[in-house]
Each structure stands twice: as C-alpha cells, then as structure tokens.
Design goal:
12 strands; alpha+beta; 324 residues; monooxygenase; Cytochrome_P450_Monooxygen; five-stranded mixed beta sheet; transmembrane; binds protoporphyrin IX containing FE
Amino acid sequence: MAPTIGSNSIIWFGPRPAVLCMDPEIIREVMSKSYVFQRPPSTPLTKLLAQGLSTYETDKWAKHRRLINPAFHLQKLKLMLPAFYLSCCDMLSKWDKIVSVGGSCEVDVFFPTRLNKRMTEIAKEVQSSILGIINKRMKAIEAGEASNEDLLRDNVVLARVDNDLIEQAFGLAGARQRGGSPSVTMIFHEVLRLYPPIATLGRMTQKESSIGKVMLPAGVEIIMPVILLHHDRQIWGDDAKDFNPQRFSEGVSKAANDQLAYFPFGWGPRICIGQNFAMLEAKMALAMILQNYSFDLSPSYTHAPQTVVTLQPQHGAQLVLHKL
Ligand code: HEM
C-alpha cells in the first residue's frame, strides 16, 4: 500500500518522486520548516520568471529577506500610492479615449491587446522605479548611511498619505463592512480562494526527513495543491464552490473550519513578501475604475480558468465598461 501523508494523499513517481499533500496541518509543518523543505530546483522556465529572493535558499535567503522586509511594510507601501495612482490614471485615460460619458465599450482586461500591453509596460516601469528606490535605500542601510533626514522625509510623506487614502479619498470600504454588503477585502479574499494565482506550491526534501508520521528520502517533491484545499467541501462547507465573500465577514481565520486551509500567498517564513503590495494596488485600481466606470461581464466571456504558470482566464476576461 502506498504510504499516505495526512488523511487523503497519494504518492506517485513522475520525473522525480513526489507526494501530494492535502492535510493543512502537515502543509503548515512543511511550509514552516523552510531550511528542511526547500523550493524544488529552478527549471529554465522558472529561472526566466523569477530571480532573486524567491530563488534563494537558507542563509542567503534569510539575509535578503531581512533586508527587503522593511520596504514591504504596509506603511512604507503607502508611499507607493502616488505611483499606483499615476499608472491607474494612464490606464483610465486610455479607456476614456475609446468611450465617452454615458457610452459603453468592451475591453479585455486580460488578453495582450495593445492597451493591455501598454498597461503591462506601465506596471513594469512603476515596478522598476520602485525597485530602484528600494535598492538605493537598501544600499544606504547596508553602508550605514540611511540618515535621520531620510527617515524624517519618509515620515512627512507618510503623514500625508497615511489617512488611508484608499478608503477616504476614494470612498471605498477597504477593510470595513457596511450594512451587510461585503467589503472589498472580503471580495478579494474570495477571489483568491476560488482562483489562487499560484495554484500549487512545491517543496523538496534535501535529506531524509519526516513529515507527519512518514519518513521521506532525499529528493522527494512535496506538492501542496492550494486550489484543491481552497475548494474542499469538508473545509469550507457545501457552498465551497460558490462565490460567497460573506464567508470572510469575520476575517480569514473564521471563514473555514480549518484556519490553515486558506493560503493564496503561501505560509510561514517564505510567505509572499508582496501580499500587502498586491492587495493595496488592486484596491487602488478598483477604486479608481469604480469612480469613473461601472462594468458588466461581457456576454462573450467564457469561464475557463487554466494554469499557464499562474491561474488565468483561457479566453481572456472581457468586460463591458459604462462611462459614468
Ligand atoms: C495576488 C498577487 C500575488 C500572489 C497570489 C502571490 C503569491 C505568492 C506565493 C504563494 C508565494 C509563496 C511561494 C512559495 O512558498 O513557494 C509568494 C512568494 C513571493 N512573492 Fe508573491 N504573490 C503575489 C504578489 C506579489 C507581489 C506584488 C510581489 C512583489 C512586489 C511578490 C513578491 C514575492 C516574493 C519576492 C516571494 C518570495 C518570498 C520568499 O521566498 O521569501 N508577490 N507569492
């Protein structure tokens, strides 16, 4: 009989021996022991897509993570709001050129049309300027040159954008619930539950190591299918497959009968460093779009999620925009 890991897992032998792990508790164990269970070696494709922190291991990873962490603190990220704002303005002005007030038009917010290509370029420009700022500050910190003046300047800018720009300036309920309708945060949580962009996480044993009650030899891949756990009826209840943001009304920890079963950003020491960044950017973009447009799903949209590195709509995501 094949050894099982947790309640319902299997072992098979593909290109390398692998274990499918479905038990949230064991997933937590694997994800928290980041020196024992490391990322599987890069393939030419993953090398192309990811470099830096996400590809480092052990002490080199720890050093870089420690250095980069402060730049991703929520307060620091609010400094990026003006940059997000400008990139959203650029996108909206492009939309405004193809639709006038009271009119409507169809856009594909996913497929690489010319407009979307330009949006990707803008996102890259913003990202590289942000990275430039972070690198400069990291070098200054490493060289012991980050002056009080720098910190003071950060604080002055912070004071200006601190008053939760998203909620107040853009009138969106970012974190609170109003009158029983779901907050934007709850909606994003539910989207990331049903469609986690990284649908499967993987780790690999470096030497003989135990997980749960099973001993694994070196070189075994541990596959953790985030998406299957996110859709599990035993964890989320009978409406597991439905889109129901209300399940997050009392926060992430109360949404499921197992707190560890929701992990769109991973878990443990290697949890996504950009999760606040991603949520803030998405809220900002949505807030700005809703100020100018209402939108419906286009009749031409066909629901066909597929994984091409990340989970994405196979035939694009067409929306009909109505200019307010
Ligand atoms: C919705 C958007 C995002 C999702 C769903 C996501 C998801 C994830 C997940 C699941 C991991 C853990 C991978 C693993 O444990 O093997 C991860 C790691 C990481 N993410 Fe994200 N991510 C998002 C956005 C971002 C953004 C915006 C940034 C940067 C600005 C970012 C930077 C990173 C980095 C550097 C790591 C590696 C961290 C480490 O190894 O210490 N992510 N992300």
